[in-house]
Amino acid sequence: NAGVTQTPKFQVLKTGQSMTLQCAQDMNHEYMSWYRQDPGMGLRLIHYSVGAGITDQGEVPNGYNVSRSTTEDFPLRLLSAAPSQTSVYFCASSDGNEQFFGPGTRLTVL
Amino acid sequence: GENVEQHPSTLSVQEGDSAVIKCTYSDSASNYFPWYKQELGKRPQLIIDIRSNVGEKKDQRIAVTLNKTAKHFSLHITETQPEDSAVYFCAASSGGSNYKLTFGKGTLLTVNP
Predict the structure, then answer these.
(1) Contact B96/B41 with Cβ under 8 angstroms?
(2) How close B22 gets to chain A, by Cα (Å)?
């Protein structure tokens, strides 16, 4: 099993550009989440999903969209990137017992 | 919503000493409290967790205690080793869900050989 995978590892965007961060898991987990990590701020929940077709907002959802068309994939879309979205983004999946994190995507918005 | 405070933000100990990190939470409905270890440039990894029907849980050198009345929980690491050096995060969640966590801001633990 590859576990939780994320692409790309690094990305640089210009203000106003849009992009999609990819996340996939091969553990057949129902639950998936997106967090952002900023220095000194811990991890903050952006969006989460409790199953295919079901998503909900977390603590900091503004500027981000998600969808869950399959159990395996949970992409995060930045609609119009802003410098405040410069961060490390972690995707996670869970079977209800333990949450596993992906390796992260480091995003810089200029 | 939930708010999790974590202290201290940095902690330096000598190898072999014990380390204690403390967290408080605000939502009395929270009932799941995991601890994550994150090494530099790596992903967070779960090291131990506790649910509100348990007051203490131990796994080798690591233990977590929970005081629901006071709304605080603590991580205890005994016989620290240099490889314990990392950032540790506490988190809390209500409804037993471990997919929508509120995290503390982290503690940088340095174990000096």
Answers:
(1) no
(2) 15
